[in-house]
Amino acid sequence: MGITWICSYLLLLILFLSSFATSRSIVKTLPGFDGDLPFKLETGYIGVGEMEDVQLFYSFVESQREPSSDPLLVWLDGGPGCSSFEAFFYGNGPLSFDYIYSEERLPTLHLNPDTWTKVLNMLFIDAPVGAGFSYSKSFDGYYTTDRKTVANLYNFLQKWIIDHSEFAENQLYIGGGSYAGIFIPVLAQKIYDGNEAGLKPHFKLEGYVLGSPKTDSYLDVNSKVPAAHRLTLISDELYKSARASCNGNYVNIDTTNERCMMDVEAIDELISGINTNQVLEPLCTSGYLKPDKEDWDQRILTRTPNNFLHPLPTNSALWCRDYEYVFVEIWANDPSVREALHVREGTKGYWTLCNVSDLAYTKDILSTIDYHRNLSKTRLRALIYCSDLDLSIPHIGTQEWIRSLNFTLDDSWRAWFVDAQVAGYTERYKYDNFYMTYSSVKGAGHIADAYKPKEVYNMIDRWFAYYPL
């Protein structure tokens, strides 16, 4: 009788712990949005790792077309340490903030007309641990790396697809922007290798999507000098001098090379007043909120206009895109919002959109070029898109590493259009049964879907439908 009771107790304990490690809830309404959500939103946590100490938060939006047959796109944000709410509210997600009619207490939400969820099931994940609402049950769990993050993401997807078996046969794509360019190719390789090894569950991986991806710690930085020259931010004379004196290497500079050091310092000085995310937009001190140690309700906006929820005209010198990120910070820290999202109480203190500086993070993957090369031996396909006005991860560097793969040019450089206007330029590469499409987005910044949502949506819709851009 005693043994039976102990077994029953242990079974209940296991069930309790597993239910806490993986939980999901349907969200029908959200504070700030008028009425019921016209799409199916699910939020939840999945515990990953051996002890499931790391709890990754996610938001899942079913396609508003045909959820049962539309592709499933997993989406990660950059940083590392930025919440997936960055894309959810400021990029490809279903909602955005109303900057004109929001009130001071709680910002107002409206539908994003260019959401990718019109044609895709989208799974937004807060990763690495510490980003967004993701957390660790142990202090040690917060010490993480690029490789640990990829391992956690793979474990997450294994558990998520088992728990959502109705999507197991949907085509799977993984994607992200900026620093997620480090995670995505490695994760794609891990998923592909797992499939080849017969690991369960089996994923119907079809490809990956990257926006202005961080790829190589040398190329991404080194390409800023030729990119700045193309954008006429530095003179022809200075660029020629730097190229000759530095021999094209502006990163690993020999300190005895005084001419190169002087040229690079002059270049740094010239672009120091430029907004590298979008060179045509003003360089502003980032707007952010500071939680009061005594009372969260007493918040201040530092280095931005005091009345931050009053509309700032986009043609004003005072306007800065970063000011708009204040809205999500106010929203996500509201108790009613956390309750609606089913955020676990006591697991997250003050929420920030990009928790970059506070992460105990080690970058142990310096380049993913070899992963792209390995993936070219598969039957997958890839879409890489960049902005022509982004100096933080210049398209020049992206095109350079793509060319280094020595693929065959399958579709030559040409314009692509939205509403009969040039939206960007594209070319496609081929290696056996692998296809990689490169696309620029005209006039956009880092990342393009936040700057040119209509154009990027049309690009995505065509690419996923196997149409030419």
From TrEMBL:
Secretion signal span: 1-23
Record GO biological process: proteolysis; secondary metabolic process
Pfam (any one): Peptidase_S10
Coiled coil: none
Keyword Signal: yes
Keywords of this entry: Signal
Protein's recorded name: Serine carboxypeptidase-like 18
GO MF terms held by the record: acyltransferase activity, transferring groups other than amino-acyl groups; serine-type carboxypeptidase activity
Homology family: Belongs to the peptidase S10 family.
Gene3D superfamilies referenced in this protein's UniProt entry, alphabetically: 3.40.50.12670, alpha/beta hydrolase (3.40.50.1820)
Record's keyword annotation contains ATP-binding: no
Domain of life: Eukaryota
